[in-house]
Design a protein that fits this description.
CATH class: Mainly Beta
Largest sheet: 6 strands, antiparallel
Number of domains: 1
Strand content: 35-45%
Number of strands: 6
Helix content: 10-25%
Distance between the termini: 42 Å
CATH architecture: Beta Barrel
Shape: globular
Length: about 110
Amino acid sequence: MVNAKDFFSGNYLKAEDCKGGELCEILDEGKIEEIQTPEGTTKAVMNIQVEVDLEGEKKEKTFTPNKSNGNILVGSFGEDTTRWIGKKFKIELTKVRVYGKVKDSIVVIPIEQI
C-alpha cells in the first residue's frame, strides 16, 4: 500500500502531518538555505533533519523552525547546533497568521536543556 499522505507531504515536517504530542530527535546540525517567499523575496532558513514518530511509525523529515522555534531551541540547547544532535523535543500545535492566512503551526517543547 502507498501512503498518499506521506507521498504528498514530501520530506518536510509540516503541522498538517502532526496531531500534537509527537516526539522528535534532532539528527544533524542543520543547514542554511535560501528560499523564495510568496511575496517573491529571498530569505534564509535553517533546515534540520529530525526523526519523528508519526502515527506509530518513525520517519526522517526535514524541519524548518520559524524564528520563535529557533529561539526556543537556542535557549534550550545553546547556540552551537552541533550540540543539538541527539536532543529531543515534543511538538505542540497552535494557530498563527502566515502571509495573511491563519493556519496550524508547530511549536517545539524541548525535552531536556543544556
